[in-house]
Please model this.
Amino acid sequence: MCRGIIVYSANFSIYWVIKKIFMHHFGTKMNLNTKKFRVSGQNSFNMKDHPTDFTAGIKSKSDAKTDLESNIKLMAEMQDMMYAHDKWGLLIIFQAMDAAGKDGAVKHVMSGLNPQGTQVFSFKQPSAEELDHDYLWRYNKALPERGRIGIFNRSYYEEVLVVKVHNLIKFQKLPDPVMDGDIWKNRYRQIRDYEKYLDENGIKVLKFFLHISKEEQKRRFLARIENPAKNWKFSESDLKERSYWDHYQKAFEEAINNTSTDYAPWHIIPSDKKWFARLLISEIIVEKLKELKVHYPVLSEDHIANLQKYKELLIKD
Model:
């Protein structure tokens, strides 16, 4: 994929192209109201109010397949426009308990995207160098460029999740005056400010919490143990983290309540059914790309005239 150009005549407008794509893809789609899954930040978010097995009346994976494929195709087309448009960046954040399906969502939902316009980062335990910087430093370095889609498989939200649950803040080498304050309240504010900064600089943020039940996590862990091809995905640390389930649920609730805003809202994705989670995620991403109104660059009349000259020269060559 290259940041190319497209020539439009008076009867072949950008609007017509985009409208044609939407009509082709959305003519027979199911009506999936994504607003139901969005946390506005205006009301208190409670994990128990959001069932993990909800499927919006869609009964099976086969029923969702056509719409997912349609969304993947449309995402690829819109990504191509976004890359050529070169104005917006899109940061997609996935957070969840272990085995909720983050990796699978990245693999299946993003399967149609061109790697040249997509960046995926997974953040593990910080290195010594990273601990010598502020906590947002390593994430800031990985932000998507204009025209690209960046995917964070876990993100700076780990700084108010795992760091909070396991009290890892004491290893972050912070000065006493910082530690004496309300460190978590300050971090929530810093994250809100950071995402506002990104939004005001053309980097849109989509945040997905893949909401899974403890019972479904158990089933998936057992499947990993029973399937030799998936044994590598399970370790003793998974059981250790599972023992902190209630602590993590509380930490997620607090993080979502304190950082869901109109410019960077959280979306609660019911994830007991992987096929529904992937469909819903794809639907939300498509809606965001439509909202950005990306398009191919439009050439001036002089540029179009020059292209015709270049064409004639190439033909004669």
Q: What stands out?
A: The first strand starts at residue 38 and ends at 39. Strands lie at 38-39, 89-96, 118-122, 149-153, 203-211, 266-270. The CA atoms of residues 123 and 161 lie 13 Å apart. DSSP finds 13 helices and six strands in the chain.
